[in-house]
Amino acid sequence: MAHEVRGVIAPGKNEPVRVETILVPDPGPGEALVRVRTCGVCHTDLHYRQGGINDEFPFLLGHEAAGVVESVGEGVTDVEPGDFVVLNWRAVCGQCRACLRGRPQYCFATHNAKQPMTLTDGTPLSPALGIGAFAELTLVASGQCTKVDPEASPAAAGLLGCGVMAGIGAALNTGQVGRGDSVAVIGCGGVGGAAIMGARLAGAAKVIAVDIDDRKLSIAEGLGATHTVRSGENDPVAAIRELTGGFGADVVIEAVGRPETYEQAFYARDLAGTVVLVGVPTPEMRIDLPLLDVFGRGGALKSSWYGDCLPSRDFPMLIDLYRQGRLDLDAFVTETIALDQVEQAFDRMHEGDVLRSVVVL
Ligand code: APR
Ligand code: ZN
Ligand code: ZN
């Protein structure tokens, strides 16, 4: 039996999103039906709506979600009805080369639910990042559900499903920030802001926030930055070096996704420092660095995909820290909105004063 619920659809390239009735099937083998409590509005949802990811319209948007398992299909043992879960994009296979080598974050045989959710006329929907959680119910692979402390605020918990996890993980997992390190974060939106928190959590002594927008810098201070640099007015490379005794930062996290900011990150790191690229570039972007400068500096150039997270390891741990008051996830929830306000949330993204708008169902 399929469930008739409301969901936010992106009908075609650059067309505004709208709320429609959708059909969500009961879970089949390996699947879980989840009653969505909250879902954050992410740039990637806007990219889907703009046709920037692929042309498989119509999309069912939303992928930063927390909810309660409604029912599970045959063979599902990892979650059960009533569990409070945070959703992730992809269930890992456990059997591929990456999984067997103990690095399931790089699994190349990930999967999502097999059965499609559809419009009432039977048109299949493409769920954003294999989730589609701007909907009252969504169908996912059970491995996309991670059980966390049910006492956590759903709005805060759901944020771990994407941008906030990407930022925290860029610092903790990819950058391997250590106690006493100096860390610079270039770009202090939701992802960079979370990287600042991750750096603090790891015990960084200096956390330097760099942005072109003063409002983001004051938010960054609230999130734990010890120093701020207004880029544009100041040369961020010179400023970061000056704040680190002339050496550059141990870890520089690029959270914008542009060639010029990547170049700044490259030169703002200590000779043996690490650069982490977590901002998402577009296909036409290029960098042009003297190879001698790559050769002449040690350290590491890394990229961080989804914060190199392992949902089953990282989500419950971060929720515990949140519950103990050591990780202020609520700081990312700028506003809570209804299902029919996603298009307005996209508009607000450009105004620059929002870390996250979160749909509450
Ligand atoms: N130097 C420093 N900061 C910059 C620059 C620049 N040249 N250009 C933009 N910024 C800042 C913006 O002012 C903003 O605060 O980068 C921040 C980007 O934040 P958001 O737009 O909120 O994006 P966010 O959700 O944090 O994602 C960052 O990761 O997921 C990807 O597509 C996303 O590439 C984007 C990046
Ligand atoms: Zn695998
Ligand atoms: Zn996202």
TrEMBL record:
Its cofactor is Zn(2+). Pfam families: ADH_N (PF08240), ADH_zinc_N (PF00107). Residues 12-361 form the Enoyl reductase (ER) domain. SUPFAM superfamilies: GroES-like (SSF50129), NAD(P)-binding Rossmann-fold domains (SSF51735). Signal peptide: none annotated. Keywords: Metal-binding, Oxidoreductase, Zinc. Belongs to the zinc-containing alcohol dehydrogenase family. This is S-(Hydroxymethyl)mycothiol dehydrogenase. The lineage of its organism: Bacteria, Bacillati, Actinomycetota, Actinomycetes, Kitasatosporales.
